[in-house]
Write a structure and sequence with these properties.
about 240 residues, alpha/beta, 7-stranded mixed β-sheet, 3-stranded mixed β-sheet, 6 helices, about 25% helix, about 25% strand, globular
Length: about 240
């Protein structure tokens, strides 16, 4: 069957060091950097709640106490569970593996805590869920056209065929779509991990090779808020949106 209700549980990746956001991240984790009047992670949790997510599993490492205190102080209307990586930063893939026992939905939403998007005519997470086909997919990535990737300096991440299947940008080439940091994943994909820290790219590569990785085009605004200058540019664009 094509289309599912929005998964009730999301994994929020919030453990990174935020090196590109220095000096702002010298005293706070990147998810607590403010954009448009609120911390980045607050924007993410608000959008999850609005889409119908009920539980958020948040991994923590860098300045973890500050992030946990913030989550306790602010009522986001979500059941928040902490996946503790204080002992060692596990990167995105290792972070997912450690958090997996806390993720009580399959498929589940996975969101990077340091991105910023504005919904278009349809809620972005609801749109992603509506396109999910469990028989055909292990990963569904929310993508934005490179031409609409505000504050982004890259040359694209993926190509997409007419059926929505995605493939990697070839070395030295430009690709038309950028990943927004939002996706739905099946637990079928999160298996046989390498030891220690690793990137979720290994899971994507498996899904792409099997023809089970798909893209959905975001209909609203998206911003790559990766550095202090990008905050000012993002807020300026939002002021006129």
């Amino acid at each position: 069957m094509t289309g599912i209700p929005v998964p009730k549980t999301a994994m929020v990746m919030a453990a990174g060091l935020g090196k590109r956001m220095r000096p702002l991240t010298a005293t706070r984790p990147k998810p607590l950097v403010e954009v448009a009047g609120a911390a980045l992670i607050d924007h993410v949790l608000e959008r999850l709640k609005r889409a119908g997510v009920e539980r958020a599993v948040v991994n923590v490492h860098y300045l973890a106490d500050a992030l946990e205190a913030h989550l306790k102080r602010h009522d986001h209307g979500l059941d928040i569970a902490i996946s503790n990586e204080r002992d060692k930063l596990l990167e995105t893939g290792g972070g997912l593996i450690r958090a997996l026992p806390l993720i009580d939905a399959d498929p589940f939403v996975q969101v990077n805590s340091d991105n910023f998007w504005v919904d278009g005519p349809v809620d972005a997470i609801e749109l992603l869920a509506s396109r999910w086909d469990d028989a055909a997919m292990d990963a569904a990535l929310l993508l934005v056209p490179l031409a609409r990737a505000n504050c982004h300096n890259g040359i694209g991440d993926f190509h997409m065929d007419p059926l929505g299947r995605i493939s990697r940008r070839k070395k030295g080439r430009i690709a038309p779509f950028v990943w927004t940091g939002v996706q739905i994943l099946s637990k079928r994909l999160i298996v046989d991990p390498p030891e220690d820290a690793f990137s979720t790219n290994i899971f994507w590569d498996r899904a792409i090779a099997a023809g089970r990785a798909y893209g959905v085009v975001h209909q609203g605004l998206w911003f790559d808020v990766g550095s202090p200058p990008a905050i000012e540019r993002t807020e300026a664009i939002l002021a006129y949106a």
